[in-house]
Amino acid sequence: MNMWKFAILVGILLEIGASALVSAADMTTPVQPSEIKWGPAPPFLPPGAEMAVLAGDPTGAGMITLRLKMPAGYKIPPHWHPTDEHVTVISGTLALGMGDTLDRKHSKVLKAGGYGVARTNMHHFAWTQTGGIVQVNMMGPFAITYINPADDPSRKK
Questions:
Q1: For residues 33 and 143, what is the distance between their CA atoms, to the nearest angstrom?
Q2: What is the 3-state secondary structure (H, E, C) of 46-113?
Q3: Is 43 exposed, middle or buried (0-12, 13-18, 19+ CB in 10 A)?
Q4: I want to staple 58 with a disulfide (CB 3.0 to 4.6 A). Which of 116, 125, 142, 144 is the partner?
Q5: pLDDT tens over the chain, length 157 residues
Q6: Distance between CA 146 and CA 153 in Å, rounded?
Q7: CA dihedral defined by 40, 58, 119, 110, rounded to 10 degrees?
Q8: Contact 89/111 with Cβ under 8 angstroms?
């Protein structure tokens, strides 16, 4: 990732993710689902989702655990990450597919308890018809690159 993209990513995460990072700092003991503090997802994800950082610092190195709460009809266009992304469906459903276009026919719908891995640099996409909550585990710093730059919601301001 070039330096300006990294600087923008860090700025965005710090600007809108401060409350989520505080939430992660608060989670030093076991928590119930009702105790998780949700906030708006960062602008590099399509609008409408909420995010909570359970562990780690998305702007730093090391293990990160995030939860993403997505409304019905939510889609994340094809993209890739510079590290492996491990996704577990907590509730609802999430469809995952591999490739450069969001093709519902070539994706697998996972139910609660379902699990998927997108390996480093693997082009993939996600969508949910019903809505759902997923947990994402990955090594930081968090970064996402959309296959089609026009799909990047952070560029649409």
A1: 26
A2: CCCCEEEEEECCCCCCEEEEEEEEECCCCEEEEEECCCCEEEEEEEEEEEEEECCCCCHHHEEEEECC
A3: middle
A4: 142
A5: 444 443 344 444 434 444 444 445 445 679 999 999 999 999 999 999 999 999 999 999 999 999 999 999 999 999 999 999 999 999 999 999 999 999 999 999 999 999 999 999 999 999 999 999 999 999 999 999 999 999 999 987 6
A6: 10
A7: -30
A8: yes
Q: Which amino acid is located at 14 in the chain?
A: L
Distance CA 101, CA 53 (A): 28
pTM summary value:
0.81
| Of the candidates 38, 59, 53, 121, the residue with the CA atom closest to the CA atom of residue 84 | 121
Q: Going by C-beta distance under 8 Å and a sequence separation of 6 or more, which residues neighbour residue 59?
A: 9, 10, 13, 14, 17, 140, 141, 142
Dist CA 15 CA 9 (whole Å): 10
Contact 44, 12 (CB under 8 A): yes
The residue assigned the tokens 């909570």 is: 52
> Among residues 66, 28, 32, which one has the least CA distance to residue 50?
66
